[in-house]
Amino acid sequence: MAFRLVTNYASYIMNNNPFYRIPYYPEFNRFSPDTAEMAIQMLLKESHDAVEQLERSCKPLWQEMVVPLYEAERHLSIAWSLLHHMLSVANSAEWRSVEEELQPKIISFYQRVGQSKRFYEMYCAIRNSDEDAQDAVRQRILSKIIQAAEHSGVALDVNQQMEFNELETELGRLATKFNNNLLDARKAFSLTLTDVGEVAGLPADLRAITAAAARDAGSSAATADNGPWRITLDYAVYAPFMKHSQNREARETLYRQHVTLASHGTADNQPLIDKILALKQRKAAILGFQSAAELSLSRKMAPDVAAVYKLFDDLASASRQAMAEEQRGLLEFACANGFEEDALQPWDLSFWAERQHERLYGYSEEELSQYFQFPKVLKGMFDLAERIFNIKISESSGEVPVWHDDVRFYKVFDQDDNYIACFYLDPYSRPATKQGGAWMNDFRTRERSSDGAVQLPMAVMCCNQSVPIEDQPSLMRMGEVTTLFHEFGHALQHILTSIDEPMVSGINGIEWDAVEIASQFMENWCYEKNTLKSISAHVVSGAELPDELFEKIVLSKNHLSATAMMRQIFLSATDMDLYARYPASKWSTPNDVKCENARKYDYPMIDDDRFLCSFAHIFGGGYSAGYYSYKWSEVLSADCFAAFKESGVDNAEALRQTGLRMRETIMGLGGSVPPMEAFKAFRGRDPDIKSLLRLNGIVGRAVCERVGS
C-alpha cells in the first residue's frame, strides 16, 4: 500500500508538472528550473525504457520501428528544446545549473540511440525492403537517419565509441559555456557618460534608452536631456552609438570593448576556442573524415569544401575593386569634413559611413526611423505575407501563456478560415536575461498521427530591438526592420509546410546552407516600394513614407555594399579555414587564421582584436564550417525574389500566382526534398549568381556575365 501511495503521489506530481507531457500550448507562466529538472529526469527514464523495449522487439517496418522510436523520444525532445528556449530568453543561474546538470545525460541518451547497431540495421532493411517506405520522402528521411547514425559513431568499435561519446559531451558543455561567457561579458561592461557634450550627436531615442538604463542601474534622476547616460554593448545601443556619437574617444572605448568581448577574466572564451576546434577535428577524424569541415559539408547542399572556396573567390573578385573605391571615397569624404588623419580607424567607419550616407542621400537613419513604428511595421509585414501566400494572420495575445509580458501570440488561417499554424513573437531587448541577436525556433512541427489527426506547426521569433519609451512605440532602424522580416521568413517556411512527416516538415531536414533562403527572400521586400510604404507611418504626423524618401532609400540600399560583401566573405572564410585547414604550419593560433583572412579580404582590424571570442555562430551555435551558408543561400534567395520582380510586384494576381508557386515548392516542401530540387521546381532552372550581384548593386551587367560564365 505504501508503495502504491508513493507511486500515485509521484504520478500526481508529474501530471501537474508543466514540463512533463507538455501540452500543445506550453504553460510558460508555470515553467521553472525545478519543474524542468524534475520532468526531464522522468522523461529521460521513460524514453530510455521505451527505447530498450523497442530495441528488443522492433521489426524492419516503418510503422513498427521508425514511428515508435520517434514517439519514444518525442516528449523528451520537446521538453529539452523548451528548456533551451528559457535559457535564451530568461537566462539565470538557476536555468544554467539545470542545463549543465542535464546536458550530459541528454547527450548520452541520444548517443545510445544513435549508436544502436540494431536500430541501424533495421533502418537499412526498411530503406531497402519495406513497401511503406519506398516513396521519395520516406527514402530521404531514412537516408538522413542512417547518415546521422553513422555520424553518431554507430560503426565505431567500443573504444572509439567511448572516446567519441566523451567528445560529444564535452563539446556540448563547451558550447554552453561559450554562450554563457559571452552573455556575462556583455552584461559586465557599461560606459556612463555624465556631460551633455559627451553624448553629442546621439539621437533622442538613444538618449532616452540610455538614460532609462542609467535609472535601472541606480541613477534615479537620469533624464534623456541631462543624463547620466549608460552605454552598453547590447547591439540595440552599441550599433547606433557607433553611427552617431561625435565622441570619438567614447567610440574607441566601446569598439575596443566590443572586439575583445569574452577574451579575458573569468568569462574568457579563448581557451574554449582551442578546445572546440581540437575536439571537432578529432571527432571528424574518428568518423573517417579529413577535417571537421568535410564532416559538416557531408550533410549540406554544397558538394565539397572546394565549391565553398570557389564561391568566396567569385564574390570577392566581383567585390574587391568596388570595395576599394568605396573606402577611398569614404576617407576623402571624412577628410573634406574635418577628419584630420590619413586613415580611418575601425571606430570611425560606422560614424563616417552614416555621415556620408546622409550627405549622399539626404536623410539620416534617425530621420528614417521616425517612419517605422513597430506596430505599423508588423502589420505591413503580415499584410505582405497574406497577399503573397494567401493566408490570414490574427493576433491572439492573451489566449495562451507566455514567458514575458512583451511576448505576442498569433494564429494563422488559410483563405477558408481553417486554422493552420501559430507563432510567438518576442521583439524587445532584455540584455540582462535574453540572448543577443535574433533567431527563430520551432516549438511544434506539422505531423499526422495514425488516426489522421494533424498537429499544427508552431514557431517562435525572437528579436532584440529597442524597448518602447513611455507612451512612444518602438521606432525601428532599417536594420531592425530587415531583421524582423528575416526571422519571419524562417517562421513562414516552418508554418506553411504541407508535409506531414515531422522529420522533414517545416524547417526540419533542410540542409543547413539552404535554410536561409526563405529568410533572406523576405528581407528583399523591405526595399520594394509598396511594401516599404505600407509599413511606414511617421510617429508625429502619421504620414506614410514620401516617394522622394523612398527613392533615396532605394538609391542608398547598396551604399558600401561591396564592403559589406567582403566582410561576410572574411567571416565565412575564417570559419571555413578554422574547420577545414587549421592547424597548419603557417598558423600557430586561431587568431592567426583570422588575421590572415583580414589581410586577404581587406578587413580593418586592430592588433588587440579578439572577435573570435564572440563569434557564437561557429563556436556556440550550429554554424561551424557553415557560416558560408548565408552567402550560399543568398544566391538562391536573390534568384527567388527576381521571379517576383519578373512577374510584376504591382500586379496583384501575378504576385499571388508566383507566391502560391513558391508556397507549394520552397515553403511547402521544406526538408522533404533536396533544396535544389525545390528551387528548380519553383524557378524552372538552376540558380544564377548574377541575381545576387545585381541585387547588391556591386557590378553591372557586363561583369555579371563574366562572373556567371
Describe the fold and architecture.
With 709 residues, the chain is α+β, with helices and mostly antiparallel strands. The protein folds into 4 domains: 10-155, Glutathione S-transferase Yfyf (Class Pi), Chain A, domain 2, CATH 1.20.1050.40; 189-261, no CATH class; 266-362 and 561-627, Neurolysin, domain 3, CATH 1.10.1370; 379-509, 3-Layer(aba) Sandwich (Collagenase (Catalytic Domain)). It has 28 helices and 9 strands. It has helices spanning 2-15, 33-57, 62-89, 93-114, 117-129, 136-151, 158-188, 204-216, 235-244, 248-259, 270-286, 292-297, 305-336, 346-361, 365-369, 374-389, 478-495, 517-524, 529-534, 547-556, 561-580, 590-600, 616-619, 629-647, 652-669, 675-683, 689-695, 701-708; strands at residues 190-193, 229-232, 391-395, 408-414, 419-428, 439-444, 447-448, 454-455, 458-465. The strands form 3 sheets. A 5-stranded mixed beta sheet has the order 3-4-5-9-6, with helices on both faces. α16 runs parallel beside α17 (478-495). Residues 1-6 and 700-709 have low confidence and may be disordered.
Low-confidence stretches: 1-6, 700-709
Total number of helical segments? 28
Spatial strand arrangement across the major sheet: 3-4-5-9-6
CATH fold-level topology of the largest domain: Neurolysin, domain 3
Named CATH architecture of the largest domain: Orthogonal Bundle
Oligomer: single chain
Q: Into how many domains do the coordinates divide?
A: 4
Helix content: 55-70%
Rounded to an integer, what's the Rg over CA atoms? 26 Å
Q: What structural class do the secondary elements suggest? A: alpha+beta
Shape summary = globular
Instruction: Report, as a whole number of angstroms, the end-to-end distance.
Output: 80 Å
* Beta strand count: 9
Question: What portion of residues belong to β-strands?
Answer: 5-15%
